[in-house]
Write a structure and sequence with these properties.
The chain is 40% helix and 23% strand. By secondary structure, the protein is of the alpha/beta class. Bound molecules: S-adenosylmethionine.
Length: 220
């Protein structure tokens, strides 16, 4: 069982790591690969005009950048703990609101039932208290709001290995584990599909009574 101090240290480790790599982040193979994962994620979601959208762990703001290019009427918000990643994001999209806060403080920053969509791309495995984070997502989403998480998935054994070797990795869910996490957190699964070789997109909907849904197969 981890204590709060260990969790805060891990969050600080993430912040320092992403501050360090921010200026290289959009360049090279990883940057290009992630950009195409983001494009494919956006193309898999039917986004309504004038929606309020939050990108959690927005990094250098690529998702927000692509959304803004597609539709100028969207209300776009991005949050991240890395100041340097956000500095790059702010230069890319002037009209979006980028806020430097931890995912743990979402409910302090935004009212309940505020967003139509929440996106999390390649960031969920860095977040502490992942089950509480899912509750926060649930609370700040409107009824019928969509939660879209695109994550790496190498299968259970390699995910575990990645968890051990990657600094700041809290836990990397398999496709099945993530589906169960959505269900026990009150989301109905609208879509789950592979986005490239090692990435999986899960799209859940917040229905009015979906908090009561139980999933007996939930493992973690
Ligand atoms: C691998 S990057 C992904 C960035 C972006 N979503 C993308 O796809 O390019 C993970 C991001 O999550 C952010 N992050 C990590 N832990 C966080 C936390 N506790 N709260 C908010 N953001 C966090 C990091 O600073 C980093 O920018």
């Amino acid at each position: 069982m981890k204590n709060n101090l260990q969790i805060l240290l891990k969050e600080d480790q993430n912040k320092k790591f992403f501050d360090l790599v921010a200026r290289y982040y959009d360049k090279g193979i990883v940057g290009n690969w992630l950009f195409s994962v983001i494009e494919k994620t956006i193309n898999s979601v039917n986004i309504k005009k004038s929606s309020k959208i939050l990108d959690v762990g927005t990094g250098t703001g690529n998702l927000i950048y692509l959304l803004e290019k597609q539709n100028k009427k969207l209300n776009l918000y991005g949050i991240d703990i890395s100041k340097k990643m956000l500095t790059i994001a702010r230069k890319k999209v002037k009209t979006a609101k980028f806020i430097k806060i931890s995912v743990l403080l979402l409910e302090k920053e935004f009212p309940s039932k505020f967003f139509d969509y929440i996106f999390v791309i390649d960031a969920f495995h860095h977040f502490p208290y992942q089950k509480n984070v899912m509750n926060n997502f649930y609370n700040i989403l409107k009824i019928n709001g969509r939660l879209v998480i695109t994550e790496l998935d190498f299968g259970f054994i390699f995910n575990y290995f990645f968890h051990i070797i990657e600094p700041g990795n809290e836990w990397l869910y398999t496709k099945k584990e993530l589906k169960n996490l959505f269900l026990v957190s009150g989301f109905l699964i609208e879509k789950q599909k592979k986005i490239g070789t090692f990435a999986v997109m899960t799209l859940g909907v917040k229905y009015k009574n979906s908090k009561s849904i139980e999933n007996k197969h939930f493992r973690r």
